[in-house]
């Protein structure tokens, strides 16, 4: 019988304790049994090689639907939320992924860059105007609430064709569905509320199609058997929730990593060409997603650890990204890290389809705020910041900063026209 050495409590703590917990687990092996909050035994994957295997092994399947069943949610809600590509078999996964892949090509991302830049500039205008009066023009702000959070929301609103007046509800729903702090009944009520909204919005797209991603998905559903009704709503749940919360964390965690390392901050500020490398290293250093859940469908071994059928496997992207067997000096924020196959976006067929958009938003958001506020600094020590109590996500609750004076001259935010899903942003791939 496998001895269980640890419990999962540290997963809900702050970044420092999480990293310390994963380091402790790595001392016992790449895969370690742990006690879950339910009292059951789970299997934590903290080794890089083992994590990549777990993310691609067909015997380990998406866990979302299983969690839904255990909550006892209604069959309608379970199917409408969980019939997405993360839980699909190989053929269905490929079919569903093909439907949305055209929205996230590099060519389309390049066409979106001016609009993302304009959104970032507009948000920074508001940050500068609302900054609390400080010393010698040095205002303060919470860059998470005022910047990192609304930027991906506004980008997704335009990409999906969601009415802007619904953005506050949209964030409230996605925030609740990705936290572990709410009682089960409130989580289910929130999911049901969001499902009702999504179904109503899809009906509107059916009556009044627009050049956006939701209208394209509705057309795929109405055009035949390419997308079922449950697959349609589940796709929206997945893309909106994953595309929103993960990018908020990428921007917030990336800014924190630089602000906590003044020499790296200066390097990026002095040479914006370092921004892509800075985003990649931030994805490794403080991954926006902490855990990818998997369900074992037949007995197997992973890195020498026997895992029974029905076992819960927690693949720690955060832990694997600091595996010293794969990354030299893993606790060092190294912008010159040439070999950086980080798992921040997952791996294999389930690699995040929105990764090109998240990278674009991260580079633009971080670059814009550093250029706008050359003396930007943290308002309190990094170890005093709070992290969201989530097993799945890895992100801050707030990022308080001292803005300092603005760079001059400042170019006003542009009014670039949004590039819709069906519009021509250059030749379609």
TrEMBL record:
The keyword Cell membrane does not apply. Keywords: Heme, Iron, Metal-binding, Monooxygenase, Oxidoreductase. One of its GO terms (molecular function) is oxidoreductase activity, acting on paired donors, with incorporation or reduction of molecular oxygen. CDD domains: CYP107-like. Pfam families: p450. Belongs to the cytochrome P450 family. This is Cytochrome P450. It comes from Actinomadura darangshiensis.
């Amino acid at each position: 019988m496998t001895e269980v050495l640890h419990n999962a409590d540290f997963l809900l703590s702050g970044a420092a304790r999480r990293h310390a917990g994963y380091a402790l687990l790595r001392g016992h092996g790449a895969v370690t049994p742990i006690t879950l909050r339910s009292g059951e035994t789970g299997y934590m994957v903290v080794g890089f090689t083992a994590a990549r295997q777990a993310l691609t092994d067909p015997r380990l399947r998406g866990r979302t639907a299983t969690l839904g069943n255990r909550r006892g949610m209604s069959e309608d809600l379970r199917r409408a939320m969980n019939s997405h590509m993360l839980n699909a078999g190989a053929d269905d996964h490929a079919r569903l992924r093909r439907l949305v892949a055209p929205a996230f090509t590099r060519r389309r991302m390049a066409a979106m860059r001016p609009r993302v830049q304009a959104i970032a500039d507009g948000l920074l205008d508001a940050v500068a105007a609302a900054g609390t009066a400080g010393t010698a023009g040095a205002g303060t702000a919470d860059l998470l609430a005022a910047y990192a959070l609304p930027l991906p929301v506004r980008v997704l609103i335009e990409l999906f064709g969601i009415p802007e007046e619904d953005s506050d509800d949209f964030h409230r729903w996605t925030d609740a569905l990705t936290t572990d702090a709410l009682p089960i009944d409130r989580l289910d009520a929130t999911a049901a509320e969001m499902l009702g909204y999504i179904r109503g919005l899809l009906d509107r797209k059916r009556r009044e199609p627009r050049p956006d991603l939701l209208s394209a998905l509705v057309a795929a559903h109405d055009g035949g058997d390419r997308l079922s009704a449950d697959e349609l709503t589940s796709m929206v749940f997945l893309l909106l929730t994953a595309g929103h919360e993960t990018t908020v964390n990428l921007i917030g965690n990336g800014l924190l990593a630089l602000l906590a390392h003044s020499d790296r901050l200066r390097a990026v500020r002095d040479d914006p060409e370092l921004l892509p490398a800075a985003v990649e290293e931030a994805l490794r250093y403080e991954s926006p997603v902490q855990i990818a859940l998997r369900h074992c469908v037949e007995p197997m071994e992973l890195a020498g650890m026997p895992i029974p059928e029905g076992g819960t496997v927690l693949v720690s992207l955060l832990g694997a990204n600091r595996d010293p067997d794969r990354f030299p000096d893993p606790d060092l924020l190294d912008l010159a890290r040439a070999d950086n196959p980080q798992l921040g976006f997952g791996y294999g067929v389930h690699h995040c389809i929105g990764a090109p958009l998240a990278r674009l938003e991260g580079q633009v958001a971080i670059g814009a705020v550093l250029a706008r506020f050359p003396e930007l600094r943290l308002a309190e020590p990094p170890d005093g910041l709070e992290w969201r109590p989530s097993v799945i996500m890895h992100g801050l609750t707030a990022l308080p900063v001292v803005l300092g004076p603005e760079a001059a001259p400042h170019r006003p935010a542009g009014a670039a026209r949004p590039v819709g899903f069906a519009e021509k942003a250059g030749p379609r791939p």
